Amino acid sequence: MALHLEIVTPRGSVVATDAEEVVLPGKLGEFGVLDGHIPFLSALRPGVIRYREGGAARRLAVGTGFAEVGAGDKVLVLTDEHAFPEDVDVDETSRELQGAEARIKEWSGELNVAHQELLDEAEWAQARLEVKKGPK
Q1: What is the DSSP string of the chain?
Q2: What is the pTM of this model?
Q3: Structure confidence at residue 36 (pLDDT)
Q4: Which residue pairs from 125-129 have beta carbons closer than 8 angstroms and sit at least 24 positions apart in sequence?
Q5: Which residue, among 1, 20, 30, has the nearest Cα to 58 in the 3D structure?
Q6: Is the Cβ–Cβ distance between 3 and 18 less than 8 Å?
Q7: 112-136 burial, b if ≥16 CB within 10 A, otherwise e?
């Protein structure tokens, strides 16, 4: 039996497939889902979703969002941003990461929502670079 994985953005579904395994970037750390996992809901941080589809390893960068592991072996991911490896421009993304890291280093205000958004921006750039590099 397989998991049904669906990744949805405001523009529509970007992945809808059956997978043997899914690894997601949860806010509190990465977690894996296999057949028969108990249902739960998790917030996601920007990172890389890894899944096995027909024995082949697949990777996709996602921004912040939520994952629902439901009954019936369904994994639903809701996110505002996604990038497949072929979508990533390494030079542009590296510049984005450097800019975000410089603004984080210069930050002197409170650790508030604006600061968290800046951290998410840096993690989003790192996720796209990671997905472009391929498996570790």
Answers
A1: --EEEEEEETTEEEEEEEESEEEEEETTEEEEE-TTPPPEEEEE-SEEEEEEETTEEEEEEE-SEEEEEETTTEEEEEES-EE-GGG--HHHHHHHHHHHHHHHHH--S-SSHHHHHHHHHHHHHHHHHHHHH---
A2: 0.89
A3: 87
A4: 125/93, 125/94, 125/96, 125/97, 125/100, 126/46, 126/97, 127/25, 127/46, 127/47, 127/48, 127/61, 127/62, 127/63, 127/83, 128/61, 128/83, 128/88, 128/93, 129/88, 129/90, 129/93, 129/94, 129/97
A5: 20
A6: yes
A7: eeeeeeeebbbbbbbbbbbbbeeee
**Over the stretch 6-38, which tens digit does the pLDDT of each residue have?**
999 999 999 999 999 999 999 999 999 998 888
Q: Which structure tokens are listed for 90?
A: 């390494």
**Mean pLDDT over each residue of the chain, to the nearest integer:** 93
In this predicted structure, what is the pLDDT of residue 136?
A: 57
d(CA 26, CA 44): 4
